[in-house]
Amino acid sequence: MNLLDLPLVSTVLDAAYRALMGLSDLLEPVAGGAAAAAAVVLLTLAVRALLVPVGVSQAKAERDRARLAPRLAELERRHRDDPQKLQRATLDLYAEEGTTPFAGCLPMLAQAPVVGVVYALFLHAEIAGHGNALLGHTLFGAPLGSSLVGAVGAGAVPTVVVAAVVVLAIALVGELTRRSSLPGGRLALPRTTHGADTVPSLPGGAALSGAGLQNALGVLQFVTAVIACFVPLAAGLYLLVTVTWTLVQRLVLRRRYPFEAVA
């Protein structure tokens, strides 16, 4: 069964297609052949603008996690031999402070359907039973429906260059975002009795070392760049704009909601 044949999916994609085509037509006198790419950029900016309140809550959540780090580390030290008790105590502390260990994840989750729609629009030759004119649009000569991996396989050098620049830009912004997520470039973490830097334990009772946490954050940031290698260029462009927005928003909100100093 083709998922695109489902009435709800077909209706949503057709509406998104017509909206994106209409926006592309409006931008064509200014953007020329890159009108559809400019439309994707504007779509991304509109989505992120709607999610600004969520970004504020994310900044507050990051500040709360840094503020609670010493108390969470103390819970980990006190209950390290009883993971279940540690989990309960950790969740109780978050509830007491009016936050959760997973606060701030909504921006990524909220954008998933939008990325999925952009992916589908630049992947299929037909949308809701009619031809997909979006596939005829390009960015610097690279078709918006092509991917880096597909272009490499086809030997399409111009497309490889454009797609590679987008992927590398995503990776660069991801690294800058990872560094900006730590106060002063490095989170000051409490010390355990063994002298190793630690961070609050996960709900399962496992703890990550300071270096391990930074490595994990780095991997997560670069996952977006890896995904961009396989999705259509239009979806990669969406990802580039959204990660750039995330970086700029983080820098602005960090001034508004700075991390408290952690001894």
Highlighted features:
4 strands; elongated; 263 residues; two-stranded antiparallel ribbon; mainly alpha; 9 helices; 65% helix
Can you walk me through this structure?
This protein is mainly α and 263 residues long. 65% of the residues lie in helices and 3% in strands. The chain has helices at 7-31, 35-50, 52-78, 83-96, 106-121, 148-154, 157-180, 210-228, 233-256, and strands at residues 126-127, 130-131, 138-139, 142-143. The strands form two sheets. The protein has a two-stranded antiparallel sheet. Strands 3-4 form a two-stranded antiparallel ribbon. The protein starts with 6 loop residues before the first helix and ends in a 7-residue tail after the last helix. 32% of the residues are buried.
Short description:
The protein has nine helices and four strands, in the order αααααββββαααα. By secondary structure, the protein is mainly alpha-helical.
Q: What is the topological layout?
A:
Elements: H1 7-31, H2 35-50, H3 52-78, H4 83-96, H5 106-121, E1 126-127, E2 130-131, E3 138-139, E4 142-143, H6 148-154, H7 157-180, H8 210-228, H9 233-256
Antiparallel strand pairs: 1-2, 3-4
